[in-house]
């Protein structure tokens, strides 16, 4: 299994890039959103990858973060969602948008992706809702790429490999989101409803820290009436 590719971009196409790794070229398919974030030909790049094995073909798909890669894997587990559909969803919403849409049951957001119909979008939300919490918690594992600051756990690397490595840092809301989810599940709330409440609270106020996010989520989870 090829889990990560690090090298220099040889060329960029509409939906893939060719990455030269010490003289060996790897063709890696990426979403529109990821493509927009990549540097130009000749520049250094690193991507987490997922290898799709078919009877007559092998395809590598690239992601700037582990969260994006994990959502791709989960989306592919849904009936009717292939690699192309998964990349379309991630390209439209981004990993954070996918997390929020599924946690809130917002299948209309998923349907906005090219080629995704309402029934498929509803199936995605239904089948993955209880898995949203674990992926949202993963987004709290922040890191900094070698030699330059990159948000979340991105692995886009600079062209100077000798630059010093900086220690991982927190990314604010991502860490608060992870900690709030953990606290709510420890209180006995189901992962799906905890994720939904956290996503809704964060959507209403993106400046909330961990304690504020927990309080806001608890208010949303409190019995109505």
Characterization of the model:
The protein has 225 residues and is of the alpha+beta class. It is 45% helix and 16% strand. It has a five-stranded mixed barrel with strand order 1-2-3-5-4. Helix 2 packs across helix 3 (83-103), helix 6 (132-138) crosses helix 7 (173-186) and helix 7 (173-186) crosses helix 9 (210-221). Mean pLDDT is 81; it is low at 142-153 and 157-171.
Total domain units: 3
- Amino- and carboxy-terminal Cα gap: 53 Å
CATH class descriptor of the largest domain:
Mainly Beta
- The second-level CATH architecture of the largest domain is Beta Barrel
Give the overall average pLDDT.
81
Largest sheet: 5 strands, mixed, barrel
For CATH, the homologous superfamily of the largest domain is named as: Nucleic acid-binding proteins
Count every helix, treating DSSP H or I runs of 4 or more residues as helices: 9
Going by helix content, strand content and strand pairing, the class is alpha+beta
Region (Domain I): 1-64
Protein name: Holliday junction branch migration complex subunit RuvA
Subcellular location: Cytoplasm
Domain Helix-hairpin-helix DNA-binding motif class: 73-92, 108-127
